[in-house]
Amino acid sequence: MKTPKFENLKDEREFWDKQDSTNYLDDFEEAGNIVFARARKDVLSLRLEPKISNKLKEVAHREGLPPTTFARMLIIKGLREKLGARDTAESHPEKRN
Fold it and tell me: In this structure, what are the phi and psi dihedrals at residue 30, rounded to the nearest 5 degrees?
């Protein structure tokens, strides 16, 4: 089968959500040596009241996440809401190089 051309990432995601990629193996190319590198992240230290810190840990645990990951998610969500999803790196991960 021939892989169709897509207008945008949304269409491509929807297509692959419904398809078995093994039907399109002839269209695939062998990848060379790939290195997955994590983007460098800044460290930001926060001072929280013990009550807030404990609540954060409690909710993070219920979500099955480490508290720092959960706090990061909350911060990103708050920034997206405040900025209208503009100017946050995670707003458009497909546009990152």
Answer: -70, 130
C-alpha 89/C-alpha 82 separation (Å) is 14
H or E stretch including 69?
Answer: helix 67-83
- Whether the pTM exceeds 0.85: the reply is no
Q: Torsions phi, psi of 72, nearest 5?
A: -60, -45
Any domain includes 4: no
Structural domain span for residue 72: 9-95
Confidence check: pLDDT of 70 > 90: yes
Residue matched to tokens 């997955």: 36
Residue 2 lies in a domain: no
